[in-house]
Design a protein that fits this description.
The protein is mostly helical. The protein has a domain of about 55 residues. The protein is about 75% helix and about 0% strand. The radius of gyration is 17 Å and the shape is elongated. The chain starts with a helix and ends in a 7-residue tail after the last helix. The mean pLDDT is about 85.
């Protein structure tokens, strides 16, 4: 494989991996949230049946875990791709 082709494939992978990591982590978080609270994560916090407590809890949990997953995937790829300064 040519070095240029390999570089482009790594760049494409670098774009996709953080999104996939975020998505899969949020799915795991949703399963944990359901197990912990006995309720599905709120899809729309504007629905009257969703309490503030559950909306804030889900937002904080999903955001934090998804952010860490994106950061970790970028950190793993940092050694393989040139880093922007």
């Amino acid at each position: 494989m040519k070095p240029e082709t390999k570089r482009y494939l790594l760049k494409a992978f670098a774009l996709a991996l953080p999104a996939l990591a975020d998505r899969s982590t949020r799915r795991l978080a949703a399963a944990g949230f359901t197990r912990w609270t006995g309720r599905q994560p709120p899809r729309n916090p504007a629905v009257p049946m969703v309490s503030w407590k559950h909306a804030i809890l889900w937002t904080a949990l999903a955001g934090a875990l998804g952010g860490v997953a994106r950061m970790a995937s970028r950190k793993v790829l940092a050694n393989r791709l040139p880093v922007e300064k």
